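**Backbone geometry record:**
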Amino acid sequence: MPEHNLLLFALSTCIHCKHAKEFLNTHSIKYDLIHVDLVKDSEQEAVMEEVMKYNPSLSFPTLVVDHGKKVIVGFKQAEYMELTNA
C-alpha cells in the first residue's frame, strides 16, 4: 500500500468525521488529525484559514492528500478506498 501524506481536518462532534477516522484507522492508514473545534482560541483563526485554502465552504471532514494534490470533502468511502489501492 502506498504511503500518502494525509491531514484530516475534522470536528470532534461530527458523525461524518467519525466515519472518516474509523475508515482510516480500520485500514491502518496513517494520517494527521486536527479537530478544528478543539484548537486553542488563539490558533483557531489560523486553522480555519488553512482549511479554507483547501475547502472554501469550510465543511467537514476535509481530507488533504499529499499537501493538496487531492482534497476529499466529506466522507466519501469510494474516494477513501482509492487511498488504499493507489
Remarks:
- The chain has one domain: 6-85.
- Strands lie at 6-10, 32-35, 62-65, 70-73.
- The mean pLDDT is 94.
